[in-house]
Design brief:
Length: 603
């Protein structure tokens, strides 16, 4: 494990410096609490000695009243100190949570492909909560306890040097032993948190895939996995708890030795007539006062270790750089964008290239249809355009600007995508369409929905644009979800539209709406369509057929359709509205008829 100390210093500096005023106030309150705690046993000693000496009841009553006032004041000030320390802690860690969340959102697909959402939740929430305890309680408890320890030792020393020395020696021995036995517990705590993170990751993944699990009858299998992770988490939690209980008992035993020492010493000195009964009480009370700081320091040391592991993980997460660095870059030109791939190759990992030597050009305003079997690299091609990944070699130009030189945010603003699976958020229709951009006026949204033929749907919603949608497209038909995704792109008015067509079949009415929407979307814009429907293929100017990540064929649709030897013309003829699959092996075609696209003037 890395040294947590440097990470703490770093995090403390970054998140506590803005609150230094509160920190100073907190320190003052801590001083006050400590002083009051030390004062009260002195008052009681006075009371005992006066009572033994036969003082008047009035004097005793005044001392008792003073005791009450100090006791109440101690409580009041410690409540204030606790409040302030929680406030400091939560303010700091909420900022940290915010930064972590933003960082995770900024990290790109390679990162999210290897980290489950559950794991990130545990990082952002679990680890940061441990840090919150550290920020708020560690400071108040450890600093406060340290002050109290020093105060007790100083006062006892003033009372009687021998007693002071004895208590001092006890504190040193106890602290050494306690810190030694507590480092013993750390690996168990770390293992416990890691097992919990794995369990969360597992649950999250299964819940996200609940539909598929149900549909495939994989429930028992998922549950078996759950039991395994749960059992592992339980075992490590139990181990950590047992070790912890052992450590607490050892601590208690040690403290009892301290009481015994104080009582024996007090009895001896009282017998010898060197101290009063009140001082014996004071000695005992001060030893009792040592108990809390010693316990708390050790408890806090444990939490410090927990937070230490968290601090390391949090720092590591913050230090992961985005694979696609997001610098401000050249803005892309307005209007329809040309797209040019120049000898582009790309690999996700060291499994070998997914795209090789891809070169093509789409003029501004024209539409390219990409065909290819499943797994041939069509979706990957569109991810490169969005800079979800950068190519391994070669260059991609949008509007004659190298995508690497264009800022990520600016680029994504100018490129609109409709993907195969549409992500809706648990938010209003309006927010789902504008993606939380409150600058888009309602009448604009309504106009777009009307253009797309969704006005009937909108009218059927009780709350109109304010209706809450369920996440993951729940309650919407596949066609409606697609049309909403179109509306999103419309509202952003991009210069390039990428359409990764869903291959699912829709009813003819929705099909017509989608066709119309595609037409509207493409007018005045450059388009790249991964087409699964005949009707969509008809719309494109150019065709590009991918095969195992290479371009197997490209050309204008008319030329390819007219050339009987082309793969495109050899595509199996599907029923109208059916799916198009690039077979690419025209030689052993089951359906030898060339694909005659309905209404294709070139054929
Ligand atoms: P489909 O028609 O099924 O949508 P596709 O042509 O869009 O297929 P891609 O999704 O681009 O195919 O995938 C191309 C290849 O890259 C496949 O072999 C796939 O396994 C691999 N691949 C896709 N995404 C990743 C990823 N995130 N990490 C690693 N490999 C990936
Ligand atoms: Mg795909």
């Amino acid at each position: 494990m890395e040294r947590p100390r440097a990470h703490y210093r770093d995090l403390l500096a970054r998140y506590l410096t803005p609150q230094w005023r509160r920190a100073v106030a907190l320190a003052l309150l801590l001083f006050t609490v400590t002083g009051l705690q030390l004062l009260n046993p002195l008052i009681i000693r006075r009371f005992i000695d006066q009572a033994m000496g036969g003082s008047a009841a009035d004097t005793l009553a005044v001392i008792a009243a003073a005791f009450m006032v100090v006791a109440i004041a101690t409580q009041a000030v410690s409540v204030a100190a606790t409040y302030l320390s929680e406030q400091v802690g939560w303010t700091a860690t909420n900022l940290l949570r915010r930064d972590l969340t933003m960082h995770c959102l900024r990290l790109d697909m390679p990162f999210h492909a290897t980290h489950t959402a559950g794991e990130l939740i545990e990082r952002i929430d679990g680890d940061v909560t441990a840090l919150a305890n550290f920020f708020s309680q560690f400071v108040i408890r450890v600093l406060g306890s340290g002050l109290l320890l020093l105060g007790v030792l100083a006062l006892t020393f003033r009372e009687d040097a021998r007693i002071g020395l004895a208590l001092g020696a006890f504190v040193l021995v106890a602290a050494a032993v306690l810190s030694r036995i507590h480092s013993f517990g750390v690996p168990y705590v770390t293992a416990d948190r890691e097992a919990a993170a794995r369990l969360f990751g597992f649950i999250e993944e299964r819940l996200a895939g609940a539909d598929d699990i149900r549909a495939n009858g994989a429930g028992p299998h998922a549950m078996r996995g759950y039991y395994q992770s749960g059992r592992a988490a339980f075992r490590s939690a139990r181990k950590a708890a047992v070790v912890n209980a052992g450590l607490v008992s050892a601590t208690m035993l040690l403290l009892m030795l301290g009481y015994a020492l104080a009582l024996a010493l007090g009895a001896y000195l009282y017998r010898a007539g060197e101290i009063t009964l009140g001082t014996v009480y004071l000695l005992f009370q001060y030893t009792e006062l040592l108990r809390r700081p010693l316990m708390q320091v050790t408890q806090q040391l444990r939490e410090f270790q927990q937070a230490g592991a968290g601090a390391v993980r949090v720092r590591q997460l913050l230090d992961i750089p985005a694979a696609v660095p997001d610098r401000a870059g050249e803005p892309l030109p307005d209007g329809a964008l040309t797209v040019a791939f120049d000898d582009v190759s790309f690999a996700y990992d060291d499994e070998g290239p997914v795209l090789s030597d891809i070169s093509f050009r789409v003029e501004a305003g024209s539409v390219l249809g990409v065909l290819g079997r499943t797994g041939s690299g069509k979706t990957t091609l569109t991810r490169l355009l969005l800079r979800l990944y950068d190519p391994t070699s070669g260059t991609i130009r949008l509007g004659d600007i190298d995508t690497r030189a264009a800022g990520v945010a600016g680029l994504r603003q100018r490129v609109g995508v409709v993907t195969q699976d549409i992500q809706l958020f648990q938010a209003t229709v309006r927010e789902n369409l504008t993606l939380f951009d409150s600058g888009i006026p309602d009448d604009h949204i309504i106009r777009v929905l009307t253009d797309l033929g969704l006005d009937g749907w909108l009218a059927s919603l009780a709350g109109g644009l304010d209706t809450e949608l369920e996440p993951a497209a729940g309650g919407l038909s596949a066609g409606e979800a697609q049309l909403l995704a179109f509306a999103r792109v419309f509202l952003r008015d991009p210069g390039l539209v990428i359409l990764d067509e869903a291959s699912s079949r829709l009813d003819p009415a929705t099909e017509r709406l989608i066709e119309r929407a595609v037409g509207l979307l493409l007018s005045g814009r450059t388009g790249i369509i991964i087409a699964h429907r005949l009707a969509t293929v008809q719309r494109v100017d150019h065709i590009l057929i991918l095969e195992d990540g290479r371009i197997a064929e490209q050309g204008t649709r008319r030329a390819l359709a007219a050339d009987p030897r082309s793969r495109f013309s050899g595509l199996p003829r599907a029923e109208s509205g059916g799916a198009v699959t690039a077979r690419g092996d025209a030689g052993d075609e089951t359906d030898p008829r060339p694909l005659l696209l309905v209404g294709d003037e070139g054929a």
